[in-house]
């Protein structure tokens, strides 16, 4: 290194005192992940707020995406987004570490499309076959990035559980004009090879927690929750689970048979479908799914909450749920933000 080359910055976490180096122009999250330090994250593009942490000492800058997920109050409180912030000199960060996924190797793998199945007119189930003799170690709820030409990537939650070692199941919703989902609905063939990286993210079921579980999914946000519920059942974890699933119409509830089966196997499982565009004759819940959950729970302090799906749902619910008493430690989410198509930085 020349005498004038920019030097790596030391990042120290509080309260753990764990320290790691960040290269010039490396985000705090990318630096942490590279050195086996797992900080919470989801979208990696500055919009979901999962990676929010507090800057206790030092300065950061945002050379990639602006920190859109930070409000004025957050900025005043010294909050930064680890997936976008780059250290300007040594920094101290107040941040939670997620030990459970820190040891899982993140791998790039090919997979063969084994089946493509319509779940609704705009949701497809993909089953991807992993290479013979190779398995992906992951925790139920995590996601993978499908790797596309030109360095683009698209995140998809794994809908299957780690117990299924040969296949990975994805639920893909069609997006009008969508580069990848357009291909899934018009062109993808059984036998096609896709490449992916994973497992990614810190949205996974906390099997050790004694708390009753509230789950909330919007659309294909059901996918990781399905994996989590099946994993809980497989682990013999019989805590009460209430699943809220928000979709437009009844036909979008694409896993009713599976949900009936879960209800038969689990002694305390409740399913609350919520339709935003209810069909004539629907006598169930209507409106925004997070409002249905809030209407049923004045106080959320006692729960472990998992939610996934459209960014607007996750964003609105996050604020409202925190106001109802759940702590950040017990509120877990993946926000299905769409990719900005910039070269990958954090987590790459
Ligand atoms: C952690 C994570 C997990 C995810 N898991 C899933 C999953 O399990 N299932 C799933 O279906 N999706 C999931 N997504 C979303 C997925 O990664 C893609 O963003 C989405 O499928 C669109 O990709 P695309 O290439 O088809 O569209 P793009 O080519 O990225 O987008 C095309 C156009 O549509 C817009 N757009 C993209 N997505 C949306 C949207 N949802 N609503 C409105 N406009 C949009 C874009 O701004 C762009 O203008 C997840 C996202 C994240 C971050
Ligand atoms: S805002 Fe950083 S991971 Fe989503």
Overview of this structure, please?
With 348 residues, this protein is an alpha/beta fold. The protein folds into three domains: 9-97, Beta-grasp domain (Ubiquitin-like (UB roll)); 104-200, Elongation Factor Tu (Ef-tu), domain 3 (Beta Barrel), CATH 2.40.30; 213-335, 3-Layer(aba) Sandwich (Rossmann fold), CATH 3.40.50.80. The chain has seven helices and 19 strands. The chain has helices at 28-34, 72-76, 179-185, 222-234, 256-265, 289-296, 311-323, and strands at 9-14, 19-22, 52-57, 60-61, 79-81, 86-87, 91-94, 107-120, 123-129, 143-147, 153-157, 167-173, 193-200, 213-218, 241-247, 269-275, 285-286, 304-309, 331-335. Helix 6 runs parallel beside helix 7 (311-323). The radius of gyration is 20 Å and the shape is globular. The model is unreliable at 342-348 (pLDDT under 50). FE2/S2 (inorganic) cluster binds at residues 41-44, 46-51, 69, 81, 83.
Fraction of residues in helix: 10-25%
Distance between the termini: 24 Å
Amount of beta strand: 25-35%
Output the strand order for the largest sheet.
11-10-13-8-9-12
Give the domain tally.
3
Which residues form runs of ≥5 with pLDDT under 50?
A: 342-348
Number of helices: 7
From the alpha-carbon coordinates, what is the Rg to the nearest angstrom? 20 Å
Element order: H for helix, E for strand: EEHEEHEEEEEEEEHEEHEHEEHEHE
Categorize the overall geometry. Answer: globular
Annotation, overall tally of beta strands: 19
**How would a crystallographer describe the biggest sheet?**
6 strands, antiparallel
Task: Specify the CATH class of the largest domain.
Answer: Alpha Beta
